[in-house]
Design goal:
The protein is an alpha+beta fold. The protein has helices spanning about 15-25, 95-105, 125-130, 170-180, 205-215, 240-245, and strands at about 5-10, 30-35, 40-50, 65-70, 110, 120, 125, 140-155, 160-165, 185-195, 200, 235, 250-255, 260-265, 270-280, 285-290. The chain has three domains: about 5-60 and about 200-220, Pseudouridine synthase; about 70-185, Pseudouridine synthase, CATH 3.30.2350; about 230-290, Roll (Archaeosine Trna-guanine Transglycosylase, Chain: A, domain 4). About 20% of the residues lie in helices and about 30% in strands. Strand 15 and strand 16 (about 285-290) form a beta hairpin. Helix 1 packs parallel to helix 5.
Length: about 300
């Protein structure tokens, strides 16, 4: 089973927990995800299955969108609601203008210190493993980009926000740093990811829904249509001769629908067989092949909706 399945991750689950559950539901080992979510967070977690796990390299720097709540009044060691308080609770009554002014400092390209409880490595060891043992965690600030940071609502000590960020941005750090600037401490109280690249909540399913569909052998409609993947790349059709050559890793001439450097190559409407890179003119070489050469292949002339 090759495809992309968007899961609405529940709170309390690690991304790896979701992958393991999906492996059991689908009955296959080859399942991965496109971007870790913290256990506390919920929302969009795209899973890639079968040979399409090789798509992961195209989403390493994928843009992500979130909605969440910052709680002002005390900081935590994890920078979120799951951590231990590291400052004394202060009574805070915020106003919208105050938080809007504060948020302006976190828009654009900024220097950000990752949380001590993070996957950032120190001499090969993930920071969170050192933090859990109460060992010193010395991290370096990194450059991140917050493309949008909109304050949706402010009530007493809480501020709801929407953020669109480049890969590598920690919204836990944003919450913590906002508290530092105000001098009252703050942490990320809740977080929901609403989009990763072209994947959003509208196409997401719970693990329970996926399990029910699998039991009824009705999973096909749960997977993202292959034509919707990597929308920035044009799609081209290969005839059976060229499809066979592509599956064996050979260079082929493909229809020139654009001057794009890379294209998605389909056999029929749904069978994504490769991502190919232009060599010259209409000559393309398969960068990644998704279907094994000796696998049973569909008729490329078959039109499947």
């Amino acid at each position: 089973m090759n495809g992309v399945l968007i899961i609405d991750k529940p709170a309390g689950w690690t991304s790896h927990d979701v992958v393991n559950r999906a492996r059991r539901i689908l009955g296959q080992k080859s399942v991965g995800h496109l971007g870790t979510l913290d256990p506390m967070a919920t929302g969009v977690l795209p899973l890639v299955t079968g040979s399409l796990t090789r798509l992961a390299q195209f989403y390493t720097h994928a843009e992500k969108t979130y909605e969440g709540t910052v709680r002002f009044g005390f900081a935590t060691d994890t920078y979120d609601a799951e951590g231990e308080a590291t400052s004394v609770l202060q009574e805070v009554a915020l106003n919208r203008d105050q938080v809007e002014t504060l948020a302006a400092h976190f828009r654009g390209v900024i220097e950000q210190m990752p949380p001590p409880f993070s996957a950032k490595k120190i001499n090969g060891v993930p920071a969170y493993k050192l933090a859990r043992k109460h060992k010193e965690v010395v991290l370096k600030a990194v450059q991140v980009e917050i493309k949008e940071f909109e304050i949706l609502d402010v009530e007493n000590s809480r501020a709801r926000f929407r953020a669109r960020v480049a890969s590598g941005t920690y919204l836990r750090s944003v919450a913590h740093d906002m508290g530092q600037k105000l001098g009252c401490g703050a942490h990320l109280e809740s977080l929901r990811r609403t989009a990763v690249a072209e994947f959003n909540l509208e196409g997401a399913h719970t693990l329970e829904q996926v399990a029910e569909a699998a039991g009824k052998r009705a999973l096909e409609d749960f997977f993202v249509h292959p034509r919707k993947l990597l929308p920035e790349l044009p799609s081209v059709m290969a005839d059976e001769t060229n499809a066979a050559r592509i599956r064996s890793g050979r260079t082929v001439n493909l229809p020139e629908l654009s001057r794009a450097r890379q294209v998605k190559v389909f056999c029929g409407q749904r069978d994504l067989i490769a991502i190919a890179t232009r060599v010259a003119g209409s000559l393309f070489h398969p960068k990644i092949v998704f279907v094994a050469e000796n696998a049973a292949q569909p008729d490329c002339s078959t039109v499947v909706p």
